[in-house]
Amino acid sequence: MAVLDIKGVTKQFGVGVRAVDGFALTVGDGELVCLLGPSGSGKSTLLRMVGGFETPTTGSITIDGEEMINLPPERRPTGMVFQSHALWTHMNVFNNIAFGLKLRRLPREEIRQRVDAVMALVGLGGYGSRQTHQLSGGQQQRVALARSLVLEPKILLLDEPFASLDQHLRERLREEVRDIQQRLKITTLFVTHGQDEALSMADRIVVMRDGKVEQVAPPAALYREPETPFVAGFIGTMNLIEGQVVDGTFARGTFSVPLPVPDGPAVLAVRPEALEIVPTSGPAVAKVHRVTDYGTHAIVDLELPDGLRIKSMVADARAWMAEQAVSLKPRAFAAYRDNHVINRTSAAS
Known about the structure:
Elements: E1 4-12, E2 18-27, E3 32-36, H1 43-51, E4 58-63, E5 66-67, E6 78-81, H2 93-103, H3 108-121, H4 137-149, E7 155-159, H5 167-184, E8 187-192, H6 195-201, E9 204-209, E10 212-217, H7 219-224, H8 229-234, E11 239-246, E12 249-252, E13 255-258, E14 264-270, E15 275-279, E16 286-293, E17 298-303, E18 309-314, E19 325-330, E20 334-337, E21 340-344
Parallel strand pairs: 3-8, 3-9, 6-7, 7-8
Antiparallel strand pairs: 1-2, 1-4, 4-5, 9-10, 11-12, 11-14, 12-13, 14-20, 15-19, 16-17, 16-19, 17-18, 20-21
Helix pairs in contact: 2-3, 2-4, 3-4
């Protein structure tokens, strides 16, 4: 069992600068939770506090009920993998991975067995004698992962470990890391600013903004039922349309949809795949600005009369052309006011 419990954690730098503000989260045994947010949202600072590389100003961090705040990194049951790999260039692969075990003064044969096993686990069998500069970026990241896993930590901490790798390598490694995490059933806290990584790897995603939690949910729920306009706009592609509700109808210019909420300003959130467009010979609600063909689908960029740009996903790019007049028919949407959802026709998907 390995449960990470973070309660009321705040980290303040200087006067009035709060990198993390009253953060609370429980990561269950064997769960992989992703911290997702823009640069400066506090996610890496929070991870470093869990690992012992930063000290919270206030709050509590426990692992299986034991307080971690006053323990240095080397005494915490955590293993951290950094974006920069942080490998020792004067050591070969075997010695990089074995370093922590040697500090624990384990018997030489046990060290060899554990290092060999973890190298096989991460796909580096037979690479023990290689120097780190002889490895590719992906192989170096595997060494960094193996160096943490060989210590058999209760909690694995991943700080944007794939950020420096190319797209194809990132996709392959994140699948491998997720497979390893599920095989070992190791409790994991993962930091990324990449939506694809979060949606494909996490059991739950924590969206952070300005050091605070904006929403916590499984990937599917977060995508389909964002609770705030920020989450709606940050996860995936979302059309956010500001307008006014009058007598049960939301309107912006000539675009309108029934919306049974009290009168006032509102923000309508519609996914491109939920926004149907129909050619029209009458007054145009929007005009086609550009069509991008991805083969499996196409994205039609639309422009409203007031200049607002929105997107629609269509099956065939050939049916649409620039300057074409269209009407808009949202199949599903969510509406927000004062940073809270006030209506949802179904999942905003």
